Predict the 3D structure of the following.
Amino acid sequence: MDCFREVARLALLVGVGAVGSASIAAAQTGAAASLTVQDLTSGGPAAVLGQLAKLKAVAAAGKGKIAVLLPDTRSSARWATEDAPGFAKAFQTMGLSPSDYIISNAQGSPATQQTQAEQAITQGASVILIANLDSGSAAAIEANAKAQGVLSLDYDRLTLNGSAAYYVSFDGEAVGRLLGAGLVQGIKELKVAKPQIYELGGSPTDNNGTLFENGYDSVFNPLYASKAATLVTRVRVPNWDNQVGETMFQQAFQAHPEINAVLAANDGMAQSAIAVLKNEKIPPNTVPITGQDATLQGVQNILAGYQWMTVYKPIYQQVAAAAVVAVYARAQQTPPAGLLNGTVDAQSHKVPSVLLSAETVTKDNMQATVIADKFIDPAQLCTGEFASICAKTGIH
């Protein structure tokens, strides 16, 4: 009889333990399921990273590797300095080990990106997260992945006619509107008479370049129509190549020396225009130029008066959101409804999306944005000739 009682007691303990474990797992899943866009965009990098620890149970339930395919280092330094290390930190915070993910950079070659994707699948990838070089090559990568049961996630750049299950990016047209409004403000503040605007846009094969252009032209078109400003010319720079952009702007400036305002779609393009203007002995605080990505060079150009503003996209938020979606996909679970806050049209299908908000950075709010977020290190920013400028503008 005692033997039966002991067996019953042990069974009860096991049952209680199982219920307790289930309760803990449920609590963890519930906490993870409550994650929203607000959770991943509030409180700065440390707070956002802390939210990811809630996903350890989901991460543990997943199988296979997550392959992150980044495009290049030419279009922007961010891919190497922010995105790559950011993904590694995000995955590790959720409990993944380096053997659970692969982070590659195609260095501007679609063929290389395709090879990296195929290698990742061979190595056991169950999810591919891709920032494409162009929609055509990425759609082929996603079709091949789908045929092998691997889920794709578009990151930063939408793949038109692709087969991505999710998309994580900043709202491209909203970014474009910030660029347009920033140039208009620069024209006003620098008292540019009869604005002659040159639009130095992003790659024609990048859907983001199109979204940005749609956004800033929604600001400029009324000005062009009313003759309050003149469009000198509008170009899109292949592959976001800064050297090509510099050549295009140099040729345009030689043909149209009346250009006195430049819409540059990112900080690299801004630097291309600045290099030409410097060579032409145009002084700072004369020609307003926009930018995007809040790179160290871009922010220094703002301090020096050669660039009016940049669009700051908190990359840590984008990385965190994409890492969360990827971990859910790896566990074959649907991301929380509060995280998927939009849908975009990839032409082939509608893609559930996480669309984040960006903000304008000028000399006046630099300390409260990119410095406060530790996106830019003031020790790197405030060196040499910039030390005195930082002191005057309160950057520390």
